[in-house]
Amino acid sequence: MTVHTPVRRVDPRRPAIITPAGLRRIVLGSSEGERLAANLSHGPATKPVRSAGPFSRTTLVVTHAERGALTDGARQAIAAAAILATADTEVLVAVLGACQDDAAALGVDRLLVLDDLDSSRYQPTACVRWLQGLQTRHSPTQWLFADSGADGQLGRRFAVQAGLDLICGVVELGANALRVPANSRQDWLRPHAPVMLLAKAVASTKLPFVGLGLREAAPALPAAIEAGIEDLGLKAGDPQTLALEEADFILAAGNGVTDLPLFHSLALEVGAAVGASRVAVDDGRFARAQQIGATGKTVSASGYLALGISGAVQHLQGIKDCRHVIAVNLDASAPIARRADLTVVEDSAALMQALLGLVRKQKEGV
Ligand SMILES: Cc1cc2nc3c(=O)[nH]c(=O)nc-3n(C[C@H](O)[C@H](O)[C@H](O)COP(=O)(O)OP(=O)(O)OC[C@H]3O[C@@H](n4cnc5c(N)ncnc54)[C@H](O)[C@@H]3O)c2cc1C
């Protein structure tokens, strides 16, 4: 293995668009490339199927579903598999847990879903044996996992147990080679390994094609004895003490939020971490560590509820990796509305009050 002299390169993790020719193009000066491209396309264009087979090889992507959906990391790993797949390679995805996502749109040819996984049990040995069963059935040439959380752990365990070569933290994946960081200035260039764990944003999920999208029930999890493991159960983390970068759900306040006790009650009730715009921080309503944006934190929550935030470009930079953004603003033309997946034109206090009432009612089972 050799360390190459640093090669100047554009950050592969920058947002990009996929051109009609299938090329990944970085939109210079914009952090909104993919979103703009998506907005520019008029109506849902029909995409071609990547390959109808027959398949003689398999790339298997393995992931845990979260609340019925795939994580961003898993979607990116699937996209990477689909982009690199040759016409005779099937993109097979094995999901631990129920999954309602549109498999074809994600580039999946066949989705194996383990619907009845009891995610409250810690059972790594059973999961590894389950993967060994898939290995026997499908003989994949490559295994891909997102290098984060439960997926990263499972990938490492499986590779060790199966005696397969493993590469972690892959930041760039090409057809024949990949890159993993060597130090702050250099990357290792390496050939592929049978098991690869992919870092965040290794591939754009905006694919110019779809997969076959077949769906099958996966074989049951084997009843393995978890020797040497005492399962003490799950305990909910406290989102208020969680680093904002780690939070899955963030309630963020801007200048349009004045009722702070109401805001904090809502955050507590829905179990959200608290973030704020710079104006709200400068005003002394929130701590500097809670500021989100270019001069604050960059967050990647799957849910971001922006209350009374205008959506200045500096703020948007901090939420570019968030999956679902919901904006609440009195002004329907505020810039945040262009970034948001849903905009509620409403007074922030009125909406917080209504939401708090709903959540409390639901908790009481009314
Ligand atoms: C170098 C530099 C770095 C910066 N870095 C950051 C950064 O990291 N993070 C950041 O956030 N900003 C940053 N800023 C500041 C940024 O440009 C904006 O000024 C700031 O984000 C605006 O905050 P805001 O949206 O909360 O406030 P405002 O711009 O005042 O917007 C308030 C919004 O709330 C809405 N509103 C008002 N009342 C209500 C109500 N009752 N109910 C519902 N909606 C209501 C309004 O319609 C408006 O859209 C930076 C600026 C510079 C120059």
From TrEMBL:
Residues 60-176 form the Electron transfer flavoprotein alpha/beta-subunit N-terminal domain. Keywords: Electron transport, Transport. The keyword S-adenosyl-L-methionine does not apply. Residues 244-320 form the Electron transfer flavoprotein alpha subunit C-terminal domain. It comes from the Bacteria. Belongs to the ETF alpha-subunit/FixB family. This is Electron transfer flavoprotein alpha subunit. It comes from Rhodoferax ferrireducens.
